[in-house]
Amino acid sequence: MTQYAMKFPEGFILGAAASAWQTEGWSGKKDSQDSYIDAWYKNDRKVWHNGYGPAVATDFYNRYVEDIDLMQVVGLTHYRSSINWSRFMLDYEQGIVDEEYAGYVDKVIDTMLAKGIEPMFCLEHYELPAYLLEHYGGWSSPKVVDMFVHYAEEVFKRYAHKVKYWFSFNEPIVVQTRVYLDAIRYPYEQDTNKWMVWNHAKNLATAKIVKAYREHGYDGKIGVVLNPEVTYPRSSAVHDKRAAEIYDLFYNRVFLDPAIKGEYPAELLTLLRGNGIDFAPTEEDLAIIKHNTVDFIGANLYYPHRVKAPEAEWPTHVPFHPKKYFSGFDLPGREMNFSRGWEIDPAIVYDMAMRIKNEYGNIEWILSENGMGIENEAEFKDEEGQIQDDYRIDFISRHLFHLLRAIEDGANCRGYMLWAFTDNVSPMNAFKNRYGLVEIDLEDNRNRRVKKSGQWYKTLSETRCLDIDLDDEYR
Ligand code: BGP
Description:
Elements lengths: L1 E6 L5 E5 L2 H4 L12 H8 L16 H14 L4 E5 L2 H4 E3 L4 E2 L1 H16 L3 E7 L5 H7 L5 H18 L5 E6 L3 H8 L10 H24 L5 E6 L4 E3 L4 H24 L4 H9 L8 H9 L4 E5 L4 E4 L18 E2 L7 E2 L4 E2 L3 H13 L5 E5 L4 E2 L14 H19 L4 E7 L13 E2 L3 E4 L5 E4 L1 H12 L1 E6 L5
Parallel strand pairs: 2-3, 2-17, 3-6, 6-7, 7-8, 8-10, 9-11, 10-15, 15-17
Antiparallel strand pairs: 1-21, 4-5, 11-12, 13-14, 16-18, 19-20
Organism: Vibrio thalassae
Family: Belongs to the glycosyl hydrolase 1 family.
GO cellular component, one term: cytosol
């Protein structure tokens, strides 16, 4: 065993994340203000674990004062959530702001700042207004991109003097991948072309709001939160390595490259065209993307992704899917979080950091989500009723170890944000897997209770030092 005592760099962010829809609940929301997620829940409740979903969530809308006190208790320096686009507007067509919701956002920001916690916001975390999906086909319409830019400008006008960290989207690839590529989420429509049209519209929307933010000369940073999957080939053989490269093009570089380098990888465009996918970007769109790259990115990192060469020929009667080029691969002997079905390999953090350093100009970034969702967590309560989540402390420590090691090796990472601050609602899994530093007790009026990890995080944040014991062969 070796004991490490690793200091955090000056100003290093130790925060936690969540989103509007996963916490706020529908209190005060008008019927016309459903988001895509709300519509999914209303139309398809049976797929949501035990029937829980966004309707009440953690009731943050009513309990934010109590929760912001708890942010201080667990030592957060920063907290990232989203502003709920679907609620921020009363009328999407006319671009009229809902002053009631906007006032609530203002109070949340002021309460956080008064407690010394810096807010960060995404402008969209799956909260596309359902109205825009129904009437315009969502991101398939350039008009929706323009409405998003208008919404962003209204947000900046109100809060950019107080909030210094902005992100266009959280994980912009996710909704269309689950809905249009894999067809496993409401409204279950397979359409690979639409998948790419949405990817492009979101890349364009990011560039347009970066442009708007800069034109107004706001004093802060603007970027996007991505979920790049650190992807390893099964073997060093050419065919396996090729599978990993192609996976990376379709799922990672499709957002990383436009956001940071201002252009799509040429090889991705060739593969799309060769498979009949035409998302028809205009020269003007490409020029906007080219000239408005982000200041920084957030990378959500949870698990490694492993692939091998495809097991079979892609069937001709099935529409094109990137799976034509790869098959998944389970590493024998892998460490697992069985509740979520995700492999655990903390070294992904180091590998991603080195990739950003070497391939993306060492752009500034934060590890914007990382965490461990555990089922039946109440079983870990001690006699006083506090959840003893030593597994979470171990998970965070090992990921931070690799992050601090990467920073020693020159990575430009400025912070770590845990998913999540409190337990909250996951898409479909709802409250099944608990992620929080703070428990939400569904049996008892959603009462909050700090877990052991919450106390530990507070100490980490105060001492600014990670103490960890690792097997000598761990590295
Ligand atoms: C990320 C999302 C979060 C959160 C997290 C945990 O991909 O940005 O919103 O949900 O994953 O995953 P899950 O909730 O599916 O367990």
